[in-house]
Amino acid sequence: MQESIFHKLSNILWVCVVTAVVLLATYVSFGRYLSTNLQGWQDEVLTQLNSRVPFVISAQRIGGQWSSFTPEIVLHGLELDLPDDGTRPLQLTGGRIGIDVLGSLLTRSLQITSLQLDGLTLHGELTEEGRLVIPGLSGDGGTLGEWLQDFLLNIEYVTLDNNRLRLSLPGGSTRDLALALHLARDGSERSLRADLLSARGTSIRLHGMGLGNPFRPDQFEGTLYLQADTGDIAAVADLFTQTPPLWAEGELGSEIWLSWDRGEAQVDMELSLVDPVLRPEDGSWSIPLDALSVKATLLERRNRWTVYASDLSVSHQGVVVDIPRMQFDAWGDSLRLRTADLQLEPLNRLFSGMPAVPDSLRSVFDILNLRGEISALQLAVGDLADPLAGWDAEGNFDRLQVDSWKGAPGVTSGTGYFEISDSGGYVVIDSQQFSMDFPTVFTQPLYYEDFYGTLHLDWDSEALLLHSDLITAAAEEGKAQALFSLNIPFSETEPGLEMGLLVGLADSHSVYRDKYIPYILNAGLLDWLSTAIGDGDIRQAGFVWRGSLRSGAGALRTVQLMLDLDNTALAYHPDWPPVSDLQGTVLIDDTNVSVWTERARLYDSMVAHLSAEAWMDGEQQMQLAIDGEVTGGAVDGLRAVNESLLGSLTGGVFDNWAATGGLQTVLQLQLNLADKTAAPLVDVSVDLADVDLTIDPGRLPLNAVNGQLRYTSAAGFRADQLQARLWGREVVADISQRALRGGDLPFAIADSALEVALQGSVAARDVQDWLSVDALSLAEGVAVVDGLVSVIPGEASLLTLRSSLEGMALDLPAPWKKAAAESRPLELALPLGGEKTVMGIALGEDLSLHLDITGQTLQAASLGLSAPPPELQPQAILAQGRAGVVDVQAWLDFTSRYLLPADTDDEGATQPAPQAAAPVAEAAEGFRLGINGMQAERLLFFGREYQGVNFSLQQSVNGLTVRGTTDWLQGEYQQPVDGPALLQLDYLDLVARDGLDSDPQAQGEGPDAAVAEPISLPDIKVSLTELRIDGKPAGSLAFDLSSADGEINADNIQGDLMGMRLLAAAPGRLSWVPAQGSRLELPLQFDDIGDTLEQLGYARFLETDEGEVVLDLGWAGPPDKASLAELEGAVRLGLGSGRFLKTPGGAGALKVVEIVNLAGIVERLSLSHMFESGLSFDTVDGEVFFHTGTLEVASLSVRSSASAFAMSGVSDIATRSLDGELVATLPVANNLPWVAALTAGPAVAAGVFVVSKVFEKQMNRLSSGVYSIQGTWDEPQVDFDRIFDDEMRLESAAEARVVPAELTPAGSANIDGETDKGDVQQPASQEDP
């Protein structure tokens, strides 16, 4: 297969490569061999080197070293002996020389490619001319210089390491510098790198690149970078042969770029100084800074040097000044500076904080406090040798702010252009949102939305003068035009800075007046001007200032202000109402003020004439005088009083008064504007024409008032014989001012009372309608009254009325009820205003009434009877005191009728309260009725009259509580809204009731008893703690009291009564139907009835272990009117074991009871020897019936183991007669005396006794005797009647008496708990013989 050309070429290439590698390897191996044996040819090598250089090279030892493909000669202990006479050889620690093998072979001479020298020490000198001289190297050229230039132009690398330069300075000091240098060449392109380090810390680093021959500047171009850093820049100053006029201390960091282009140079640099201190050559001042940095470019064109600086930054104590760009141009003796975007505030702060700046200049910077920006600035100096001879400055400023200086105006937001030279200048201002600050003239800067004009500057050796053309300024107040001038003397003068300012304004508003009023005017005048001129239009205004700006130099200037006003309000004094719609002129000339009006209005009234004059009096106090005439309505006059000083001095009592009608007013005032405590001089005269006046609070109407009212500072208000009408009736009114302070003290309205005296007749109905108080409807008719309205500053007005009330009737409970014809003194006091309205009424000396009618509704009431009324309490009607007669129901009716809201029917008519036996008045919602400690000699209550009663009553929406005390009763009654009422009686004496008188008609016994209203009671739980009889305790009771269908019931009667008990298992009951009668049912249980007899006042003739008595009685009349003659019903008696005792005889009612004393009867039968200790028994059963005037003992059975008695009979209560029988049964065999008694003789008795022993069983059947009982209660007669011979009957020999069923309580229990089934008492059973 035939190979291609490419395969052949690749084979050839590989052969060449391999051959080249082998040759190079052979070359390197041979070179390394020669290098290692170079020391053997040391002399030959040095000889060859010396033959090619213009100096002598010597070395202690040489060697060879192969580096890549280049052989190097290594020299140790190297010395260079320069051709200059008298110089020491240059000592080096060593060196390396690189040989160009190929070049040497081609040129057949030694060619050096690189040179490295180590440890070179040079000695140099800096001459006073600024030349650097290194002995042996600083000649004027010659062979060495030419060789060195040629050597540097052709060698590829030159390196100097670890070299030192000992430099001698002109001042004699020496500096040691460490030097490292590296030169490289690649064809015509060359590079330089050098490092220079001073022993004092200065470090200089060079980097350069160029093209061409650097020894021929016109054929070379390149750049050089220099970085120099030093910790002490002052050390660098020693390198200058001449000290710079301005130098600095501190740390320096700099970078410099030098560009060279065939003879034209440009230098760019960046300098940075840390903590520099700038000093002049003579060291007379210093400027310490925190930092300084700048970037600059230096150019030279056509004999003009130009420096472009940018990013100049200077900082000092936190203040940083940045100047973005600057340009300096210098040619000949001329200099020009240009800059832009120069911020003035940091520059001002920098200068004011530098100690090097003179104090006077620093104070200027401090005061002016420059802010803003110089957007463009050019400063030119024609001759640097005499800079003040010809200079000029021009520029633009923006947002310029300058504070005021010595009264000269400060400026804010100034924008414009200025041009100034050594001969004068001008400033053109064209600004928006511009303001000028006159701190010695105006409190606030003069602000303008648009401001433009030209300000000229002229000066001479004595003063600087600023004066303007016509300035135009636009602001909220309108378009103003002004002329301004300012004279600033260079030396101290009496007026100091003098300003002229003329401002004219048209078609503006009065709200802007304060802008042009200087605050240096009199303080009182300023206060007046600040409030006097209100809203309105300014047709024209002018302000003038001429003279000194110095504080306190009022005599060296004049200030004037003119206002032409229209539709403006004028508040001539804060204590007096302003006038409106004023058209007039205000002129201020220093401290004098004049106001003239063509027309004005006071509210809706016309001001026909008004003038105001202000002036400085002899005591240097501003005085103001007002003179005016007003015609208009009374409503404006009253409003003027309320809104003026008069209203405050009178405590605002007229605030709610109302007035209509016409007034004609003449006003004169004089006010001290400087002394607020000085009382004004006031003289006001008012003519009233058919004025309707309403005094409120109180709504007191005075109509058709005519007359003259006058007010003066010396006497206050005064009017005589004003004619008016009150509620349609004619009255006469006098108005006066009464001083509250005594002595000879001068009159002061604040310490006086305004009094309006009224005299005329008043109808009670009008007073009620006026106050809208229903309670006053108790009065009817018309009476003459004397009234007085007292108005005291700081207090509520007071209306007092006095009258004899002739012609007026009063509907009061007796004894205070009054007929129209009677005369009784009345005093009434009513406050007209205040938080509460409490009316006080005094009727004679006995009755006082307080009514809280706040809000025209009754809030509370209190009544005092011969005593002061109690303190008012919200929603309460209270009473206290003492009275001869108190009718509780009448007072409750009075309270319901007049003091509590009345119920109305559908047509609005008031409904009368229903008559009730219980004294209850319905409390209005939220109201309570309270009577505390009321003492009544006679109290009418519940239809009864009580003597010497002390009672209290509390009634509210929660219920009624009544507590009363007499000598025989004390207790409390509580009636809640829901649930039963409670009556808690502490004690009740049934006998000691001298203070209780009955009202027959109320008890149903009078002629109207048949038509008496039914009594309705709530459910009442009654608790009687102590029942007394004639002052002695008799027990305690509890029961439930209620009413239904006209019947009053006391149910569930329980407790103790005279030693007897009413148990819950069998309670008692009392009922009462008015006009019909009462009924009592009491099942009483007891132990020893003797205790009960003793408590009732009877002799203790009976003793028991236990017993029961059941009362079922009725009578015609109320419960407390029970009488023995009217009783209907029965009394059932059941006793356990006991005995009858012998007692002394009684009388009257006691005799009635002692009829049943069998011990007495036995004694009358001469059988007392049989019952020495009384008549004992096992049981006693009996029943007594009452038949309206008749008392019937139906049966009375006494049983014992040895005897038995039975008694029955009838008594007429009216005649107290007795008609009855007694059956006594005793066993004959054991009782001979009894037999003798029966037979009326002892002989017969003995025979009977013998027979009874023989026939004992049969004789027991013949042991009963019957006795008749006759006579009266006082003298009862007991006589033997007959003997029973069959069996003993416990009833009388007559037929058994039948008890009416309606009078016998069904199911009445006897002592053994058994129930009697029939109506007739059954005889006792007897055993068979």
TrEMBL record:
Pfam families: YhdP. The keyword Lipid metabolism does not apply. The chain crosses the membrane at residues 12-30. The keyword Membrane applies. Keywords: Membrane, Transmembrane, Transmembrane helix. Residues 5-1278 form the YhdP central domain. Residues 1301-1329 are annotated as: Disordered. This is TIGR02099 family protein.
